[in-house]
């Protein structure tokens, strides 16, 4: 065994071998894979081997498309037969609600060149004669589906990597990982030690244990998963003989099963409601090529539906039952990328759909290691999307829920109950008393809207029971004053003698003067957006840093990883994420100044406290930081305080607001209000896919400032070219359903753009969509269409904000 390597990959499943191959493909040949047993030990060897390209997240769908297209390449290059069967596939809908979901899902692929299409029940039956057409209402046909041999595929990756110069050591168990002062790693095994620059945790079932070697508790849990294989079926043999092809892969979402041909019989698997975690605390190192005890009774309900939907199974004998463990994250997506707070320690685990996503994960991680960036937007799979709240108990509850709902519809207004409530603020109970309907974001309970007694969310693809009440909240802000909790934003303090210079380098915008705020994007080296912030210069007051940075709550760990990796080593900058050590309230609307003035002797007039001003002040008896800014686009204020003061300030603001008809509002009303101003949001309008000119944030990039900020050269180039795409706002002739994101935008019959977010702008009484279209077409007002639930809806480009286009109210 060699003593040094540039990269050590731990784990010989399909993901680990894919990473190894991609590293060598891009020229890094001094790489090693360590496997405690044989390749495919763990989950890979007993996988059903199904693959598909369709995914609800278009960015993940691109990775799946890359994975499927890669298979012929590695088969040819390695000389290893991978048992590739490109059978095509059907996704079946037994209800109209499911069929609506299919329409939405299918639309997302249109601007990416997707070839899947809706088919009738009759067409589906002709393609798959085993199904009972009376049980379904429609289907989606996807030509890019099939299955393969997990063993052969994994070995094809491994042989390709070895052909390029990689080394693989089997029966070599990693026993410890120790990082040295120079950042390199001691990878200690039972066969000796390797010194490595990078370590990749692709350990699958043992990823949690490998993480614990470096003090990391990854949010990953293995679940028992069962499928059965039938004896030979005459119906299958007859179809093969008469058609000259295999039966296709099918996913019956409402039956919660999947099926495909296996030799002359069929394979049927299910994600059952009565699910079972496997080894939830520790994974035994002795486990390998074993299977778990079969338990058909546990999946009897799903099998009963499956046999009804596919009657031929009733006459088939069962030849084999497979029950093996697979790893999942709380949301079912992989955990990929550099681990925050560690140098060159990488995660590539919880890749449940390894044969749909393994190639894409290998591509992303190899580019990330070599280039410092994955090359595309992988936020949905980023290991940093989870923070410290994702404990063992949280993970167990969420994974069980996700597994049992894997084939269930997740409506856009649906909030799931597992592992809740976890994080709450001091006014949680007061908001609940007032009818708050909460959503959980990064573990924190946040009010979405306020329901009168007897009214509950009814989950739907269309406008639901919250519609009128969200409208009331939005209009209350525009006509008077509203109050919302804003604790879900991320808050950071940056202090020290080097703070200003460091921020000037990290952020593309200008550094505000003392007592002022500025809006600033943050870019990567390629000039793409990786953050948008409000930066406040607080001076040098006691008890806080010199600068307060406010950003997206869901991206806090993602941003902290970036910040920490760029901190100077001389200690001149101190950085802290405040989490719930600082909480917030926000008031907005034309009467908001009157409410605030009632709680302070200070002059809050426009002349004394103008737009984008910030200061420390007492409100009533409580110390707070007050900034004059509002995401509603109205006159408004953000108020930040220590948690022990929030309850008092909430009551004080509500009392002061009584003469002005103050009303509570939640995130759904906030969404309606920000759409009227064309304000974008992180992870929707602002992502590493876009440059600041494309995202209409160019005015906040200070290209002329002396500081050489990250991405400056690329930002200059983008300004010169104008960028390929442009973020725009549309007014949509919607009926009873509004856009939710990722719908295709058409012009002249061509899908040329995509929706990033939208909804109904209640105060302006119209349906709004924000999205990206080619820059050359962004000046045309008419001739647009947006597809919503299978309907082509006329849309008109809105060149100026619907509300306060001159910003007179916001600044007045």
Automatic annotation (TrEMBL):
What lineage does the source organism belong to?
A: Bacteria, Pseudomonadati, Pseudomonadota, Alphaproteobacteria, Hyphomicrobiales
Q: Which GO terms describe its molecular function?
A: dimethylglycine dehydrogenase activity
Q: Where is the FAD dependent oxidoreductase domain?
A: 6-368
Which enzyme class?
oxidoreductase
> What family, per the record?
Belongs to the GcvT family.
Mark the transmembrane ranges: none
Query: Domain FAD dependent oxidoreductase central: where?
Result: 371-424
SUPFAM superfamilies, A to Z: Aminomethyltransferase beta-barrel domain (SSF101790), FAD-linked reductases, C-terminal domain (SSF54373), FAD/NAD(P)-binding domain (SSF51905), Folate-binding domain (SSF103025)
Q: Which keywords annotate this record?
A: Oxidoreductase
What EC designation does it have?
1.5.8.4
What is the species of this protein? Rhizobium halophytocola
Q: Which Pfam families match?
A: DAO (PF01266), FAO_M (PF16350), GCV_T (PF01571), GCV_T_C (PF08669)
| Residues of the Aminomethyltransferase C-terminal domain | 726-804
UniProt entry tagged with the keyword Phosphoprotein: no
Stated name of the protein:
Dimethylglycine dehydrogenase
